[in-house]
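note to self — DONT lose this again. spent like an hour looking for the file last time. sequence + predicted structure for the chain T wanted, 376 res
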Amino acid sequence: MNFTYHSRSARVTFGRGESESLPQHLAPFNRILVIAGPRFRDRVEQLQNEMGVKRIVPFSKVLSHVPQDLVDEAAGVVRQERPDAILAMGGGSAIGLAKALALGLSPELQACYFEEGLDAPAIIAVPTTFSGSEQTDIWGITAGDGKITGRSPRVLPDLVIYDPELLVSLPVEHAVTSAMNAMAHLVEAVYATDGNPVTRFQALQGIQAIVNGLRQLGASASGDAGSRAIGAMSPDIAEILLFGAFLGGKCLREVSMSLEHKAAHVLGGSFGCDHAAVHSVLLPHVLEYQWPHLDADIRTDLENAIGANPARILQDLAMHGGAPANLREIGMEQTDLPRVVDLILEKPYPSPAPPDRRCLLEMFENAWIGALQEES
């Protein structure tokens, strides 16, 4: 009970149908850049009809890992339109682009914000996945030499609107991998090297919510691939998972992540793997790698929240929902695994388990075939 706790608050509204209140939340702003992919075209047009075409500026190009050239393209729109707010509707990619723009990760924006004395626009986030990015002060962009991440209070959204009804149409596999992304935040928060009892309690609460939601989702989803593709989440399940993801993002803001997140950034930024799919595959293997080095009380907490043999249960939950079973399925070449380990060791994150090259390579070989250590 000797700890330091810090959390910068963000305003949150949570509830079914909350996204319908967007016009009221956006009313104080004169010009709003709306970052939202093509599937939200109808909602963007609805905002234009309600608030005026001149006030709502759509930007529908959204790419994973926030490439620098996309930031530069969007920066040109910001400099031309001068929005005083950015509405990001979508997952971590849409919200990540809004963060990059608010931070000024472009020469154009640095001139616009700093040389011309303009305030960076406010960020309003409406998450439609379980990534948790909307709760964090973490930004990330991908350039030619891989993914770069950092923290800045400038990128934390001013308002987050959680509406479970926006997530019910997610394909089951996407919902499962996104929920496993949230689970990775929660699990690593429990054993964070700079952890505290407040964040740890929130993380355990979030883990229980995600486990509960994934079990219900797995039970409700048909085994038929076609039905999985159209979504099988009830609003009740979406609500449970979204609450867990909210806590996961909050934990991500409060403590440092560890080996699992470093590995996910390497696989995504340097090898182009889907971020959520990577978490679905890697989390059980990394938890198994960390397990002997965790304090007994942390192991007990994780067993109470997940069940006996947490790594096995997490892998079963992911695979039962249709998530990829191994790194091979998400496009990793086995011959690239030594390079993955080298990149992790170049700038390792703090980790309870020592970052041993031989042990890490063995872990990744197991993840490539999808077998936990106990099975290999």
